[in-house]
Amino acid sequence: MTAPSMKERQVCWGARDDYWKCLDENTDDASKCKKFRSIFESSCPQQWIKYFDKRRDYLKFKEKFEAGQFEPSERTATS
Amino acid sequence: PASLDRASEVWSPLLPPPAWCREPGAHSSEGLSGGGPLGAPGLRTRLLVTGLFGTGLAAAWLWARAKKEQRQQRRRMEALRSAAVGQGDFHLVDHTGRPRCKADFAGQWVLLYFGFTHCPDICPEELEKLAGVVRRLDAEPGQPAVQPLFVTVDPERDDVAAMGRYVREFHPRLLGLTGTAEQVSEAGRAYRVYYSAGPRDEDQDYIVDHSIIIYLLNPDGLFTDYYSRSKTEEQITASVRRHMARFRSAFS
After folding, report:
1. Exposed, middle or buried by CB within 10 Å (0-12, 13-18, 19+), for A76?
2. A8 in contact with B, Cβ within 8 Å
3. What pLDDT digit, counting tens, does each position of B90-116 carry?
4. Is B123 annotated as a binding residue?
5. Which of B224, B228, B236 is CA-nearest to residue B211?
6. Shortest CA distance to B214 belongs to which of B227, B232, B231, B233?
7. Which residues form a coiled coil (chain A) (predicted)?
8. How many CB atoms lie within 10 A of CB B123?
9. Which residues on chain B are in Cβ contact (under 8 Å) with A44?
10. What is the rounded distance in angstroms from the CA atom of residue B175 to the CA atom of residue B178?
11. How much is the pLDDT for A77?
């Protein structure tokens, strides 16, 4: 399969951004964003969808981590 | 006795002249410019001699240091020349099908990036950045034209045609380079590039994990600097300009 052209990449990124915007507005409730999800899935290669899903998870984790939501447990802190 | 009374400031040929009319280095029995009665050199003489000796030592030291620096510089230039020939060499094919090796770019500044055409976001972003740097450098009059190179880490899929389709969308001078798996591996080793193809899905599609670096090579073909993902277009442009201003060829 040939790689996506620049136009196809931009369409995919746009769909991804729309989907992520919907998730941001709905506190990551995927059920509220089914329409955007299906546009996203039809605009991007499957590998890219998996990649962007993982990227979203990572970005969300990073947000939480930087906001200090992950504290070391008592046990590990004193070990 | 009155003749030895300095405080009276009475000049008499019988007395030794007051300190301020004494000739330099003249023998004297007292004061700062005094010395022993047997004629040992005065302090001023001693200071002068020490000063001359010290100056001589300093000059000799500076000369020796300059010579050492010259030797080191010569050795460094020799090392650079031999490194420039062997270091970072590659044997690849460009996106027009023409064989290329590092020597083909001698005399040019090169910005080199390793990636693959099936890359979801990072490679397009880095190549856009690279193209932006090239455009900014092109805009400056009198500066040599920089050669951007894109080497694939996915030779299995990125053949000459695929590379051609990909690079022309970023910059007209961006040259795509591909080859056999061995040739790409050789190039990757030369630049310490990590790359690893991920698992394939049902479409046989996969993503290649790889280090994300833009390399700067000078006109001698020597690796000069590198720029990570966090460097902006402006920062890279400024850095390349600085290197260009400072550059002196090992082969001139």
Report:
1. exposed
2. no
3. 999 999 999 999 999 999 999 999 999
4. yes
5. B228
6. B227
7. none
8. 23
9. 120
10. 10
11. 54
